[in-house]
Amino acid sequence: MDGTLVGLIAFSSVIGLLAVRVPIAFALVGVATVGSFVMFAFRTGTFMGERAIRATSSLVFSNSFDLIHSYDLSMIPLFIALGHIAYRADITTRIYYAAKVWLVGIPGGVAMASVVGCGGFSAITGSSIACASTMGRICSPEMLRMGYDKRLATASVAAGGTLGSLIPPSVLFIIYGIFTETSISKLFLAGVLPGILSLFGFLLVIYLWVRHDPAAAPPFDGHITRADRLQAAIKAWPAITLFVIIVGGIYGGFFTATEAAAICVSAAVFIGFAQRKLDIKGLLDSLRETCIQTSSIFLIAAAAKIFVAFIALTGVAPAIVEFVTAADLSSFYLLLAISIIYLILGMFLDPIGIMVLTLPLMIPLVETYGFDLIWFGVVIIKLLEIGLITPPVGLNVFVIANVVGKEVSSETIFAGILRFLAIDVIVLILIIAFPLISLLIPGSMS
């Protein structure tokens, strides 16, 4: 049986199952199991069911076992726990309040503070959805009460929430690093400058929006003193400390990304109890939510590992590489095609699902062209980040719509998000055109 044909049918089947809302893990492992059975059963040209059952079982269980026992995978529950603990210890939200005190006097300052708060939250949690959900509950209702334009009050937080995909630590970077066997520490550092560039791009959008339409952001009528600003900055020290431990520790070679996660979790618990912002109940609730979220990610990752093994069995990846090589596409057109594919998939699927579905085909292809996998990882994450706010199914938009309720419709949020999408595309072009933006910090890593 033609393995390439089986592989292409498998991809089509997975996309079809996802279209009817079958969970990504079940779709991947189901298709991979059936496809592997077919490949093994007809390997000799005649059907051999008993041999296929044994071989398929071995492929399924060995690959899932190897993944779950991966050392790098242990940082996912650690960083997820860090996010939940830091939120309950009031560490993440202080960044927003500090930014609001410093920026509230600027036109659109609260919206800018929301973006900065999302960036600070992302620098600890590593989850875009969690960032949008948490910051949406804090920032959007406050801006709506102040009379901000509904589009600005919601779209700024939806866009700011995507920073969790790029600013380290990022769960997507961890999954990418595991499946491509690249350094997760270098991936984290590679996301720093593109993440900061995206953040300042969002701030520029807000500035230009309010300058063009001053009524979109009513001016602040209170009074903020220098002492207020100093006090707010001091209160934000725990979040800054955790970020410095993660990025500074990894960059300086003091510890690995996993060790940085473990140290930061311990530090967050200590700070939370020391400042009496965290109690035993809050800690246990954080751990419970961590277990639920981690189980979901691990299930998807294990299913993806099985699917990757099945794709390798079919030989569809080398066939696609051969086809593209024969087509003699330039690097520009290849990257353009990849970007279009990811942007289209991002309109309908979640980022983890897109990544685990496409990486088995994309990585052999880009390796053939000699692309740096660290840089390519940043490009992929940026594309997935754009997908979180791309209509018709921008996950962050629907998260914000759920937070604000009937007061603002998802259509209104999408209307406001278009400005942020434009700056995202510009940042993506800069990342592709100038790989140094991504590779400068990891390239200088000691």
TrEMBL record:
The lineage of its organism: Bacteria, Pseudomonadati, Pseudomonadota, Gammaproteobacteria, Chromatiales. InterPro entries: DctM (IPR010656), TRAP_DctM (IPR004681). Part of the tripartite ATP-independent periplasmic (TRAP) transport system. Residues 13-436 form the TRAP C4-dicarboxylate transport system permease DctM subunit domain. NCBIfam families: dctM. This is TRAP transporter large permease protein. It holds the Pfam family DctM. Signal peptide: none annotated.
